[in-house]
Design a protein that fits this description.
Helix content is 91%, strand content 0%. It is mainly α. It contains five helices and no strands. It starts with a helix and ends with a helix. α1 runs antiparallel to α3, α3 packs antiparallel against α4 and α4 runs antiparallel to α5. The chain has two domains: 142 residues; 85 residues.
C-alpha cells in the first residue's frame, strides 16, 4: 500500500513538473494550444496506466506474500537438519510444491507488470524531458529576441550619437570659418563696424568650437562605451 502511494505521488510530481495536472488539461483547450493539450492528455494516460498497473502488481505481491507465509514453514523443514521418514518427506515436498506453484505464478505476474510499469515510466520521463527541452528552446528564443532588441537599440543609439557629434563639430568649425571670413572681408573693405561685429562673432565661434570640442570628447567616450557594450552583446 505504501508502494502504491509512493508511486502515485511520484506520478503526480512528474505531472506537476511539466504543468499537466488535471486543471491544466481542462484549461489548455481554451488557450487554443492543441499540441499542449495532446501532450498533457498523453501524460495523463500514462500516469493513469501506471497507477492501474501498480494496483494490479501490488495485489499479486500481496497474494504472493500471503502464500509465502504458508510455504515458509515447509521450506524451513526441507532446508533444516531434521531427518524425516520417506513418506513424511514426500508429503512435505508435495504440499510445498502445491503451494509454490501459485506463489511463483503471482511473483511472475508481478514481475511482468513491473516491466510494463517501467516502460511507461520511461515514456513519461521522456515526455517530461521533451517538455523541458521545448521550454528551454522557448526561453532561448526569448533571450535571443531580447539580445537582438538590445543590440538594435545600442546600434541605433551609437549611430545617433556619432552623427550628432560629427554635426556639432562641423557646425562649430563652419561658424568659426564664417566669422573669420567676415572679419577678413570687413578689414579688406575698411568696415570698422563690420570688423567689430565679425571679431565678436569670431570670438563667440571660437568659444563655441571649444565647447563643441569638449562635448565631442565626451561623446566619443560614450561611443566607446556603447561599442564595448555592443561587443559584449554580440558575444552572448
Amino acid at each position: 500500500m505504501e508502494d502504491l502511494q509512493a508511486s502515485i505521488e511520484q506520478q503526480e510530481l512528474l505531472a506537476s513538473d511539466v504543468g499537466c495536472n488535471e486543471t491544466t488539461v481542462i484549461a489548455v483547450p481554451n488557450s487554443g494550444s492543441t499540441r499542449a493539450t495532446a501532450n498533457c492528455e498523453k501524460k495523463q494516460r500514462l500516469i493513469e496506466d501506471i497507477n492501474e498497473l501498480t494496483v494490479r502488481r501490488d495485489k499479486y505481491l500481496s497474494e504472493a506474500e500471503v502464500q509465502y507465509e504458508k510455504i515458509a514453514p515447509l521450506e524451513a523443514l526441507l532446508e533444516g537438519d531434521e531427518v524425516f521418514e520417506q513418506d513424511r518427506l514426500i508429503e512435505i515436498r508435495s504440499e510445498y510444491n502445491t503451494l509454490k506453484i501459485p506463489y511463483d505464478s503471482r511473483k511472475l505476474q508481478a514481475s511482468l507488470i513491473d516491466i510494463q510499469i517501467n516502460r511507461r515510466e520511461q515514456l513519461l520521463n521522456h515526455e517530461t524531458l521533451m517538455a523541458g527541452y521545448a521550454e528551454s528552446m522557448a526561453n532561448w528564443k526569448a533571450d535571443e529576441q531580447e539580445l537582438n532588441e538590445k543590440r538594435d537599440s545600442l546600434s541605433t543609439r551609437l549611430e545617433q550619437i556619432q552623427q550628432q557629434a560629427e554635426q556639432d563639430m562641423t557646425k562649430a568649425r563652419q561658424a568659426e570659418t564664417d566669422a573669420a571670413t567676415a572679419y577678413a572681408q570687413a578689414v579688406a573693405w575698411g568696415d570698422i563696424e563690420g570688423e567689430k561685429n565679425a571679431n565678436a562673432d569670431a570670438q563667440k565661434a571660437g568659444k563655441n568650437l571649444t565647447t563643441a570640442t569638449e562635448h565631442n570628447r565626451r561623446q566619443h567616450l560614450i561611443i566607446a562605451a556603447l561599442e564595448q557594450e555592443l561587443v559584449i552583446v554580440e558575444q552572448q
